[in-house]
Amino acid sequence: MSSLPGLYNYWIVVFLMMAGFYVVISQGNLVKKIIGLALFQTSVFILYISIGKVADGNAPIFIAGLGDYSNPLPHVLILTAIVVGVATTAVGLALIVRIQEAYGSVEEDEIQARDAESADAPGARPNDGSAESET
């Protein structure tokens, strides 16, 4: 059984995961929420890379005399996950830019208050952007 200080990478994963989760649930700013999600996602990447390492393992290049090899599959999967994560973050930031243009704010409570005001207004219709303006 390993000692607790020897498992420092798992402690880092737990810290990053909880920090990212805390940012997502405690912040009202949408940009900060995206940063928290990216932090959470990074902790998952570190976890999978840590799991793929074999103690005293070598690179998976088959040479006579070497017995233990590190598993390359987690590394390949994480490379794919990084690309997907960057794309998802970019889409999220693009949506935040559109929200900023539409509502004038990226604060969650201000956006919800503005939605509530527009829903309570008499004769208000949901604005989906497809309706032509009346002149």
Which features would summarize this protein structure in a list?
mainly alpha; 4 helices; elongated
SSE map:
Blueprint lengths: L7 H19 L3 H23 L20 H31 L4 H13 L15
Helix pairs in contact: 1-2, 2-3
The counted number of beta strands is: 0
Number of helices: 4
- Termini, distance in Å? 76 Å
Radius of gyration, in angstroms, nearest whole number = 23 Å
Characterize the main sheet.
none
What would you call the shape?
elongated
Can you give the mean pLDDT? 84
Question: Helix-strand pattern, N to C?
Answer: HHHH
Strand percentage lies at under 5%
Estimated structural class? mainly alpha
Measured as a percent range, the helix fraction is 55-70%
Poorly predicted sequence stretches spanning 5 or more consecutive residues: none
How would you explain this protein's 3D organization?
The protein has 135 residues and is mainly alpha-helical. Helix content is 64%, strand content 0%. The protein has four helices and no strands. It has helices spanning 8-26, 30-52, 73-103, 108-120. Helix 1 packs antiparallel against helix 2 (30-52) and helix 2 (30-52) packs antiparallel against helix 3. The radius of gyration is 23 Å and the shape is elongated.
